[in-house]
Write a structure and sequence with these properties.
The chain is mostly beta strands. Helix content is 6%, strand content 55%. It has a 22-stranded antiparallel β-barrel. It has a 5-stranded mixed β-sheet with strand order 3-9-10-7-8. Strands 4-5-6 form a 3-stranded antiparallel β-sheet, with no helix packed on it.
């Protein structure tokens, strides 16, 4: 049997088909979900064996469930996921998933999405000009301004389309799932590279609960979270949550001569759950969140472009100065609800949301104290979603053999920038006037004067409808086949794409371009076929073929482009994958590995240059390819000798290439703009060839409760921010060390954790924003150390 296991492991790791993480939305947004288990995933599992841990139970049964013995490590848990829209054990799902309960995330030192890559190799999460940028297995999008993320964010099944404000504290959650690879069938809209699903706590009918957490760490960073659950009746409960954080900037810089502002976030959520009859569960919730500060709008020019080296001095390190008044403000309000009806034939779920977002921000485009160019943007989004699902249950026909789901999804949104101010001064003025002269002259508009300002408006409507179905049939107890498909139609319409010269007063200015009404529709079908085999106890071998589509869009934010906004073609990904999940060494070790091959057509690639006509331009790379292998291992080391010693490791090896990109806009080695460059064979952006993590945790039984000691190391081999792959836009290799000491005083249920992040003070970036003026670095924090208290009662 062991020989067979190793043979299948080899196949799962190396065979490739021949054909080829609201703003604190997660902290507050607990979109409605079916009642989660009261024996939550935050409870540790027993240490005896990985596959003997009890799974979640219904809230009504929780009181009758015997209390489990204290675990020897929080790193080992049996996690139930809903990657296929139904509750399943993680090891039984034929999808590559990294899943973490709330307790496991705490044990690993992960408190917000920006930390997720440290425990999920192959995942890259950065922040650029206040926007969250996510890549997974070489697939993603810079999602700047009006671009859609390619790795979708879901909170309890509700799609959050905003790239703004995602990288914040997770808050009170049940678990986080990172679904690797395209999720075109069940998740659909824009889940080309995968999905990050956050599942939050639901109100409980059975037990009142108060949960408090406070953290103090370096840079006067104070983070506080409170969660209260109140059962009102046997079938009615309400939960109220609040968050507040306040921190000094870790960057010792100045903005227009003033010190860096504090980063402040605050918010509140109310969630009501009611079961009016036995088989009907209803949830209604709402939250509001606000953020003020500067975020990653403050970035300093570390490598000026040749044309500006006479007026821009390189700024390296955590200091620096910008002349423009960088700032970032966010306001986000969401109302959402879910109803679940259980019948003797199937379950019916209805999910809906109404989401509003407003941000204001300013960005020094040259990243220096020299007055040259700045942007000030006012962005909004108004989104409504609805979904209806019919899901098989234990009473459905042929439920012992067949599991299925069918659904309809609706998305309607209007989002845009209204307006964006583009201010110019100094040596840039003459160049801008030269570009504007042909149009301004014909309209009788005089040239811009010093400190002149242009305004642009870019607004898009999106209407999307889709139907989907997926079924899994078990032919035997060891062989099954999953087949599914999604039919989607999405229409993009230009509401306003215009440019204007600012005039004195509060008027709209003098328009020199004005476009609206154009639309483009993307129709797609995303199939999935996945056979799976359980050839031994605790082992799952699966293969999959699936596709996903990211809809077309328009370049609607234009200052110096005077023609109709062009269509950016729809992006389509075809994926082949073989994976293995198994327990080894009598259940003491758990392995998950997959090999994959992606073919991408019309990859939507971002480029930023004033000379390209607008602040941000999307272009298509005709063909790209990603092939790779990733793995995750969790192992109890010498369980007969050390009780609670756990080793974790993970890695991702990628070969991400543009296989056909003959004419892409970009900068050469000297940082000079060129409108047509051959990027064929170049490495896909934000995709390291290797990323990996190792960790070691030991839990001791001491008087009063368990004591945990843990350390981990993350390594990233480096990547490029732009397709031209030059030193000008390269992120060097870096490694990050973390360490934690945690003690749970069981009598009070009070946990104290002393921690350190980036212990060796490694310098690396959240993003490098390359434009006409040079490379602007938004640095990640240096060494951070602090103390965190968790009190649940």
């Amino acid at each position: 049997m062991k020989a067979k296991q190793w043979a299948m492991l080899f196949l799962g790791a190396y065979w490739v088909p021949a054909s080829a993480w609201a703003q604190q939305a997660a902290a507050l947004a607990e979109p409605p979900s079916a009642p989660p288990a009261e024996a939550s995933a935050s409870e540790p599992a027993t240490a005896a064996s990985l596959d003997t841990v009890p799974v979640a139970v219904k809230p009504e049964a929780a009181a009758a469930t015997p209390q489990r013995e204290r675990a020897s490590s929080r790193m080992i848990e049996e996690i139930v996921v809903t990657a296929q829209k139904r509750e399943e054990n993680l090891q039984d799902v034929p999808i590559s998933i990294s899943a973490f309960s709330a307790d496991m995330l705490d044990a690993k030192g992960v408190s917000d999405p920006k930390d997720l890559p440290l425990v999920t190799p192959g995942l890259t999460i950065g922040s650029q000009a206040g926007f969250t940028v996510t890549y997974l297995r070489g697939v993603g999008s810079d999602a700047f301004l009006l671009g859609d993320p390619s790795v979708a964010l879901y909170i309890d099944g509700i799609y959050f389309p905003f790239a703004h404000g995602q990288a914040q504290n997770f808050g009170a959650i049940e678990r986080v799932e990172v679904l690797k690879g395209p999720q075109g069938t069940l998740f659909g809209r824009n889940a080309v590279g995968g999905a990050i699903s956050v599942y939050t706590k639901a109100p409980s009918f059975t037990d009142p609960e108060v949960s408090l957490q406070t953290t103090y760490q370096r840079f006067n960073d104070v983070q506080t979270r409170a969660h209260v659950n109140v059962p009102i009746a046997d079938n009615l409960a309400v939960s109220v949550s609040g968050i507040y954080s306040n921190a000094d900037s870790f960057r010792d810089g100045t903005i227009n001569g003033n010190p860096m502002p504090q980063e402040i976030a605050r918010g509140a959520r109310v969630k009501l759950r009611w079961d009016p009859i036995e088989n009907l569960d209803l949830t209604l919730a709402g939250f509001h969140i606000e953020q003020t500060g500067v975020s990653t709008m403050f970035a300093t020019n570390s490598d000026p472009a040749p044309d500006f080296r006479a007026v821009i001095t390189p700024q390296n390190g955590y200091g620096g100065a910008n002349d423009a008044g960088d700032y970032f403000n966010l306001s986000n309000t969401v109302i959402y609800g879910q109803g679940t009806l259980n019948t003797d034939w199937f379950d019916v779920k209805l999910i809906a949301s109404d989401q509003r977002l407003h941000t204001e921000s300013a960005y020094d485009f040259d990243g220096s104290p020299t007055p040259l160019v700045y942007f000030e943007a006012f962005q909004f989004a108004d989104v409504r979603t609805a979904e209806a699902q019919i899901v098989s249950n234990a009473d459905s026909w042929a439920s012992d053999k067949l599991k299925w789901i069918a659904g309809y999804y609706f998305f309607k949104g209007r989002q845009g920038l209204d307006p964006v101010h583009f201010g110019v001064a100094g040596s840039v003025l003459n160049g801008v006037n030269e570009l504007l002269a042909p149009v301004f002259g014909g309209l009788g508009i005089p040239p811009l004067l010093n400190d002149g300002e242009l305004n642009a408006v870019g607004i898009l409507d999106t209407d999307s409808n889709s139907i989907y179905a997926q079924g899994t049939y078990n032919f035997t107890d060891w062989a099954a086949l999953t087949i599914g498909g999604r039919l989607q139609q999405e229409k993009r319409t230009i509401v306003d794409s215009s440019g204007a010269v600012n005039t004195p007063g509060d008027g709209p200015g003098i328009k020199y371009t004005d476009f609206s009404g154009n639309s483009d529709t993307t129709r797609s079908f995303s199939p999935k076929i996945s056979p799976e085999f359980r050839l031994w106890d605790g082992g799952l071998l699966y293969l999959s073929y699936q596709t996903a589509t990211k809809s077309s869009t328009f370049n609607v934010v234009n200052f110096l482009r005077f023609t109709q906004p062009e269509v950016v073609k729809a992006e389509k990904l075809t994926a082949y994958e073989v994976g293995l999940k198994t327990d080894l060494f009598e259940g003491s070790t758990r392995l998950s590995t997959a090999a994959f091959w992606y073919e991408i057509r019309n990859d939507q690639v971002q480029f930023i240059s004033l000379l390209a006509g607008g602040a941000v331009t999307f272009q298509n790379a005709p063909a790209s390819r990603v092939r790779g292998v990733d793995f995750d291992v969790t192992s109890q080391l010498f369980p007969s000798v050390f009780n609670g010693l756990v080793f974790t490791a993970g890695g991702a090896v990628l070969d991400p290439r543009y296989t056909d990109f003959p004419c892409g806009q970009g900068f050469n080695n000297l940082g000079v703009y060129n409108s047509c460059n051959d990027y064929t064979g170049k490495q896909i952006v934000r995709s390291p060839k290797f990323s990996g993590t190792v960790g070691l945790s030991q839990t001791f039984d001491v008087p009063g409760g368990p004591l945990e000691l843990a350390t981990d190391y993350y390594y990233n081999s480096g990547f490029y921010y732009l397709p031209q792959n030059t030193d000008f836009n390269h992120e060097n290799a870096y490694g990050v060390v973390g360490a934690r000491i945690s003690y749970l005083y069981e009598r009070w249920n009070l946990r104290t954790t002393v921690f350190a992040k980036n212990l060796l003070n490694e310098k690396y970036n959240y993003s490098r924003f390359t434009n006409d003026f040079g490379a602007l670095d938004a640095l990640a924090p240096p060494a951070v150390y602090g103390i965190r208290l968790n009190w649940d009662f």
